[in-house]
Specification:
Elements (H helix, E strand, L loop, with lengths): L30 H20 L5 E9 L6 H12 L8 E7 L2 E4 L5 E3 L15 E5 L3 E8 L1
Parallel strand pairs: 1-2
Antiparallel strand pairs: 1-6, 3-4, 3-5
Helix pairs in contact: 1-2
Bound molecules: zinc ion.
Zinc ion binds next to loops.
Amino acid sequence: MPAHRAGVTWAERPWQDPAGCDIETGGRYGVHELGIAQSIVDSVRDEAAAHGGGRVTRIGLRIGELSGVNADALRFSFQISVQDTEFDRAELEIEEVPLTARCSSCHAEFRVVNFDTACPTCGSSDTRTTRGDELQIVFLEME
Ligand SMILES: [Zn+2]
């Protein structure tokens, strides 16, 4: 099921051009999360239809630190996006995934802080990101 929509941009979603957008955010948040929230709603609508069109009660999301998505902004944007839709009572459950890497030399796994990917155990810079770039719908609960 997971619908991976990382990398959705305004260019790919021209109908959400902020210049012509009538959604009022009060200037609190950028358009980034609004676009993502809208693509989540689209994905959930497709998934719900594929599973018989029941009412969606909960949506589980996983967002990695590297995705640059702010969870609070996304919650707020989601509320705006589902207003007056069939999903207006759906709850959003967000799991935030810290950016994590593994060292190729000593195999230590560590949390990346301030995008410093050098291994804190042995100092090697030969490390690979293991978690933290997720932007996924992980589950839907329907009734
Ligand atoms: Zn190491």
